[in-house]
Design a protein that fits this description.
alpha/beta, 243 residues, 6 strands, Rossmann fold
């Protein structure tokens, strides 16, 4: 049965998350980050959150089941992994996998929805017609494209020893697409989850596989933040989809 549990974790608040919140509050067109998406680091709040995450990971990974860890290649996910594992006192290697990177927005990167409408009106119309799941910005990816990455990653996990726990540090769109694939959700179901329950920074989502397939154990759990009195944030990652 190979991997028996997936522990999927969103990165801590990033400087990009904070910049997007400022841009939307100011009704601006452009999100001022100053770095390419792959290089965006955690904000001070994100560092605090990642440390608090370690306090939640320790008890979760305390048993002796075989455990493997992966991270998105993006800096904010790698920082979250490193800081949380250090705080938990866990000495396990973290394997980087580019399939776990955030959804690429192409020409719409660093634009608020106002920026998309004003600078790429035809693309905004295409987005409205096709919907968030299937719209692929020029040079970017649709959610369906991200799903293909997740399916590929899960296929590779089949070669691991039975009973392995896989811990994955990634992004909000990835958390939701892991649920989409493992639980066999529909387009409308996964988008409804994203709209009504935004994925919080450093939240833990757990999926367990049994004879009848994957079962959701926990979703969007941030009890470790509340116990540490660390800030709880839930920045939406897909800023092109706020229409």
């Amino acid at each position: 049965m190979a991997v028996s549990e997936l522990v999927v974790i969103r990165h801590g608040e990033s400087l990009g998350n904070a910049a997007a919140a400022v841009a939307y509050a100011a009704d601006a067109e452009v999100i001022e980050v100053g770095a390419r998406d792959a290089d965006v680091e955690l904000s001070p709040t994100g560092v605090e959150q990642a440390t608090a995450l370690g306090r939640g990971l320790g008890p979760l990974l305390a048993d002796e089941r075989p455990t493997r860890l992966w991270s998105s290649t993006y800096v904010r996910a790698q920082q979250t992994a490193r800081l949380s594992l250090d705080a938990a006192g866990i000495e396990l290697p973290v394997q980087l996998d580019e399939r776990l990177r955030d959804r690429e927005l192409g020409v719409l990167d660093l634009l608020t929805w106002r920026g998309v409408v004003n600078r790429f009106p035809q693309e905004a119309e295409r987005r409205q017609w096709l919907g968030k799941f299937y719209h692929r910005p020029p040079g970017g990816e649709s959610w369906a494209d991200v799903v293909l990455r997740v399916r590929s990653f899960l296929t590779d996990l089949a070669s691991l020893p039975d009973g392995t726990r896989a811990v994955i540090f990634c992004h909000d769109a990835l958390v939701l697409t892991f649920r989409y694939v493992c639980e066999g959700l529909t387009e409308s179901q996964v988008l409804e989850i994203g709209n009504t329950t935004p994925v919080k920074n450093v939240s833990i989502t757990r999926l367990q596989r049994g004879p009848d397939g994957w079962q959701l154990l926990t979703f969007n759990d941030v009890a470790h933040l509340e116990q540490s009195e660390a800030p709880v944030t839930q920045h939406a990652g897909d800023t092109d989809a706020r229409a």
